[in-house]
Amino acid sequence: MIRYAVVGTGPISRQFVNAATDQGSWRLRGVLGSSHARGQEFLSSLHVVPADAVAHGRLAELAISRDCDVVYVASPNSLHFSVACEALAHGKHVIVEKPAFSTLQEWMKAHEIADSRGVLLLEAARHIYEDNYQILSSAVSELGGAAPVLVSLRGPPDPNAGQRPAEGLAQELGTTTTLLHGLVAIAIPWMNSHLPGPEDPWV
């Protein structure tokens, strides 16, 4: 059984808890909100709440707790680094919601702490394991060029809204935003010829 705590009481934390509960081998032991009352409200709002799950009043209290092994960090982005480092320093594995940190230096420092304590630090970037990302990632070498391109797809499609085909394809690809390396003039033709989708071109 993996015992975990959650930092942050927003919708994404609730989604994480529900998924962990459905998985069966994760047990919620604590939550830290912006206040003790918010933490209590979060626990009360869950469909399944272990009797021994508690709302913590301070980060230090959660970090030193012997009742959890993993901390899921879904606090405001500006607090990710400080929260993660505190948990890592006390020997907790950490899953931090994306974007994990603000700078490469923060990422390296957090990993340094994790390595020194023998624990894992993971960013909750599920999309990098999905098929659509793998297809696009493997094609980077074919694109040529070396400029970052942000391709944003929105869905599901609405035939009455005059959406471009790229937007209508979003649900099929299962993505909202994918970061590619390559010039958009090269990337778009490649996607038209390689990715499954409607007969109309992407743009």
The gist of it:
By secondary structure, this protein is α/β, with parallel strands linked by helices.
Q: Averaged pLDDT, please?
A: 78
Write out the CATH superfamily name of the largest domain: NAD(P)-binding Rossmann-like Domain
Global geometry:
globular
Instruction: Give the proportion of residues in helices.
Output: 40-55%
Q: How large is the share of residues in beta strands?
A: 15-25%
**Span between N and C termini?**
49 Å
Q: What spatial order of strands do you see in the largest sheet? A: 3-2-1-4-5-6
Instruction: Output the structural class.
Output: alpha/beta
CATH fold naming of the largest domain: Rossmann fold
Query: Radius of gyration from the CA trace?
Result: 20 Å
CATH architectural grouping of the largest domain = 3-Layer(aba) Sandwich
List the helices and strands in order: EHEHEHEHEHEHHEHHEH
Number of domains: 2
Number of H/I helices: 10
Describe the overall structure.
With 203 residues, the chain is an alpha/beta fold. The protein folds into two domains: 2-124, 3-Layer(aba) Sandwich (Rossmann fold); 127-194, no CATH class. The chain is 41% helix and 19% strand. It has ten helices and eight strands. The chain has helices at residues 11-23, 36-45, 59-63, 80-89, 104-117, 131-138, 140-143, 165-168, 170-173, 184-194; strands spanning 2-7, 26-32, 54-56, 70-73, 93-97, 121-124, 148-152, 177-181. The strands form two sheets. The chain has a six-stranded parallel sheet with strand order 3-2-1-4-5-6, with helices on both faces. A two-stranded antiparallel ribbon has the order 7-8. Helix 5 links the parallel strand 5 (93-97) and strand 6. The protein is globular and about 55 Å long. The protein starts with a strand and ends in a 9-residue tail after the last helix.
